[in-house]
Amino acid sequence: MAGRPVNRHSLVRILDLRIEESIACVLITVMALCVLLQVISRYLLDLGVHWTEEVAAYCMVWAVYLGASIGIRHHFHIRMILLIQKLPRALSLPLVLIADAIWVAFNILMIVYAEEYLSLLLTTINRSPALGIEQEWPHSIVLIAYVLMTLRVIQTYVIWLRGGCAGLPAREHEDAS
């Protein structure tokens, strides 16, 4: 067999670091191409390619939700971390733990409601106007994104615990990957 065998840990690391970014990048590219096609077809060729609007809108929504997960991975979400870091550890750590517990609780609530909403969509026929696809497919990103966000918050705590609970449970101290 030619080549190196794939190391399972390196594959997991690549998925951990790049899966959301890669999918979001493809979605943003498809969205931009659809908008460009729509502009060219409408203003230069005087015809409307209606499916491009729908594809662009779905791609944008998916990219935004995946971006929320990416934000957690790279710690781009708005936090009062500078203020919290100025507090003594006896105060800052409980504040961060409480805030993240509320965040995860909200994510779980959204997962439950997203699952209920998708179950409702599965019981009805609700097709998109231009593409004719069932609405549970584009709407499934809400469930997917909140699961991903919850996993990313949990991942932050696993890394923090493995690191000996140094600092606060966030990865701002890590080197950029």
How would you summarize this macromolecular structure in one to three sentences?
With 177 residues, the protein is mainly alpha-helical. It is built from six helices and no strands.
Mean pLDDT: 84
Helix coverage percent: over 70%
What is the number of beta strands? 0
How far apart are the termini? Answer: 31 Å
Rg estimate, integer Å = 21 Å
Question: Structurally, how many domains make up the residues?
Answer: 1
What does the main sheet amount to? Answer: none
Describe this entry's structure for a reader.
The protein has 177 residues and is mostly helical. It has one domain. Helix content is 72%, strand content 0%. It contains 6 helices and no strands. It has helices spanning 8-43, 51-74, 81-86, 89-123, 136-139, 141-162. Helix 1 (8-43) packs antiparallel against helix 2 (51-74), helix 2 (51-74) packs parallel to helix 6 and helix 4 packs antiparallel against helix 6 (141-162).
Write the layout of secondary structure elements.
Layout: H1 8-43, H2 51-74, H3 81-86, H4 89-123, H5 136-139, H6 141-162
Quickly list its features.
177 residues, mainly alpha, disordered C terminus, 6 helices, 0% strand, single chain
